[in-house]
Amino acid sequence: xxxxxxxxxxxGTMGHGIAEVSALANYKVSVVDISWDFLNSAKERIIESLNxxxxxxxxxxxxxxxxxxxxxxxSYDVMRDADFVIExxxxxxxxxxxxxxxxxxxxxxxxxxxxxTSSIPISTIAEVTKRKEKVIGMHFFNPPPIMKLVEVxxxxxxxxxxxxxxxxxxKKMNKIPVRLKVEVPGFVSNRIFLRLMQEACREVxxxxxxxxxxxxxxxxxxxxxxxxxxxxxxxxxxxxxDLWNVIVNSGTAEDVKCEMYKRKFEAKELGVKTGKGxxxxxxxxxxxxxxxxxxxxxxxxxxxxxxxxxGAWLIQNGIVSAKDIDRVxxxxxxxxxxxxxxxxxxxxxxxxxxxxxxYSKGYRAYRPNSLIEELAKSSRGFYD
Length: 384
Ligand code: 3HC
Known about the structure:
This protein has helices at residues 13-24, 36-55, 63-67, 93-106, 122-126, 160-172, 189-205, 211-221, 228-235, 237-249, 260-266, 300-316, 322-333, 339-346, 348-360, 370-377; strands at 5-9, 28-32, 70-73, 84-87, 112-115, 135-139, 149-154, 176-179. Helix 10 packs across helix 11, helix 12 crosses helix 14 (339-346) and helix 12 crosses helix 15. It contains 16 helices and eight strands.
């Protein structure tokens, strides 16, 4: 099946980036959103991003020529001849289901329908369509034009053809696809991200460290591109709280009681998009690297311990391999090396001891996974 036209529903942070990436891969693109305000702002952001690439010689085609392949509309009519549609509307399950119902009615029967959801189960979305086998998760990372990863998430209904077409499309978009064997709430990326946020939050709320100290360790010791709170601000604290709730409410992850994120959300301090979150930014929508202390008492092994425990759970449940977790963190979050490799280097025994220590303080989510326990006791790592 040859894909000629890609539809994108939702022109926000992710949608406009996905449209840009699709046009750069030479596809015709139709972007739909509910208002011209959103569409015009998406257009401006795409042009700005294309200009950056063009000025640096990273793309050869002139931005105005790339833009000729993208049409914007407030009507779903433009989806009538789409071959592959990617939905990127807010993470509200009823809204997503409504969008898929509409797409199912309007797109040709051969069209594949993908969701860029960060945590909603794909099967729940697929069930409103008459083509469940053609519905799949295609999860991009912010900012989509820069981040290489695409998580490919089949539901229990998705056909092999749909999986193969999606993997192929991701490669044509110059992305690195990582396929989950089984659908799991939050996928790999956001389950790990959640665990990093929870430990960061726990350390601050329990008085072990300040926000800046946690982020200093993330950036200066683990060499991550952003601190954990900084990244949360960048992603949006509404998105962060949302994926936190979806994963915890699914019953597949023990919660860590921590209120800071929810409080920020309730105060409508949503991070970069509102100009204020855990840190202050120059203006709404304007990210600037935050200033952090060079040194910090936060132990990097402690900071990643819960995320590593989650990684072990994903491996044990046959969802992905250690290597795929590492690919997710390197290409989806720009980690300098994989999380599981970091764990091996910092010492599994060390990670295990932090988990035991925090678990003993009453945080049940830190109960060491049996794979970690086994590796710690036999002095082995995730890699030989
Ligand atoms: N379009 C084009 N170029 C862009 C761009 C865009 N949208 N955004 C950034 N760039 C370019 C800049 O021009 C700059 O290029 P240069 O190095 O040639 O000058 C380069 O990218 C770096 O950007 P900045 O100098 O502005 O800032 P940083 O050096 O801090 O890098 C970053 C920004 C690439 C975002 C980096 O901080 C990073 O990798 N952060 C981690 C991002 C991350 O983890 N994303 C995943 C979030 S989780 C997610 O999305 C899943 C969801 O479901 C929650």
